[in-house]
Specification:
- The chain has a single domain, classed as Roll (CBS-domain), CATH 3.10.580.10.
- It contains seven helices and seven strands.
- It has helices at about 5, 20-30, 50-55, 70-75, 85-95, 115-120, 125-135; strands at about 10, 15, 35-40, 45-50, 80, 100-105, 110-115.
- The strands form two sheets. It has a four-stranded mixed β-sheet. A three-stranded mixed β-sheet has the order 2-3-4.
- The protein is globular, with a radius of gyration of 15 Å.
- This is Hypoxic response protein Hrp1.
Amino acid sequence: MTTAKDIMHEGAQWIPKTETLLHAAQRMRRLHVGALPVSDETERLCGIITDRDIVVKCVAEGHDPSQCTAADIVEGTPRWIDAGASVEDVVKEMGTHHIRRLPVIENKKLVGMISEADVARSLPEDKVHAFAAQVYAGPPQT
């Protein structure tokens, strides 16, 4: 059985909810990623921010990214998947919640991230279209 850990990108990093959006954007640039999981003070997942979130919810609203924090823009219930979950479980989680990125947790620690492209690469060709239709059917999520 192929698991979430098998298809994830390793090396994902938390950003504390107290971190400024300027530093978050700089970390995204340095890591060549478009999203970062956000942790609370106990390193528990409390959300995900994307580069688009920073632009739309901060910059476009006229706020200063050096003054706004990740906590100012995270919203909703964060979704995640256990490292040992099957690819089918990953597909179900991402499709049901219309999300494009999914943190992977093992022993209560962040071990990676899965994007929709990671899932698509792991699915048989005849299932990729159905997966994409499910993820993109709902409102845009991170």
